[in-house]
Amino acid sequence: MKTTIHSMQSLALFAALLATTQLTNAQTTTWSGLGADLNWSTAGNWTTVGGSIPPGPGDTAVFGNGAAPASTNAVGAVNNIVTASTTLAGLSYINVPARP
C-alpha cells in the first residue's frame, strides 16, 4: 500500500513539474503583417521577444488591434494565410473597438 501511495505522489509531482516547464517556456509572437505576403510562414509578418518566427509549439500567437497590416479590422477580409498544420501553445485575438 505504501508503495502505491509513493508511486502516485511521484507521478503527481512529475506531472506538476512537466506542466510548469511548459508554462515557463511559452513565448509571445505578434502578427505585424509587414512581410512580403500574408503567409503565416513568412518571418517578416511576425515580431517577438524570445519566441519563434513564425510561432511554434511553445509560442502564443497574438493578433492585435492595430491598423492594417497588423490587423485588417474588416469583416471578411484576409488577415493571414496558414499553409500548413500548425501547433501553438496559445492563440489570442485582441479586438478592442475604437472609442469616439
- Considering DSSP H and I runs of 4 or more, what fraction of the residues is helical? 10-25%
- Could you spell the SSE succession in H and E letters? HEEEE
What gyration radius follows from the Cα positions, in whole Å?
19 Å
**Percentage of β-strand residues:** 15-25%
Structural class: alpha/beta
Explain the overall architecture.
By secondary structure, the chain is an alpha/beta fold. It has a domain at 26-93. It has one helix and four strands; from the N terminus they run H-E-E-E-E. A four-stranded mixed beta sheet has the order 2-1-3-4, with no helix packed on it. It is elongated and about 65 Å long. It starts with a helix and ends in a 7-residue tail after the last strand. Residues 17-23 have low confidence and may be disordered.
Q: Can you summarize this structure?
A:
By secondary structure, the chain is α/β, with parallel strands linked by helices.
Secondary-structure blueprint of this entry?
Elements: H1 2-25, E1 27-31, E2 46-48, E3 59-63, E4 90-93
Parallel strand pairs: 1-3, 3-4
Antiparallel strand pairs: 1-2
Features:
1 helix, alpha/beta, 4-stranded mixed β-sheet, single chain, 100 residues, 4 strands
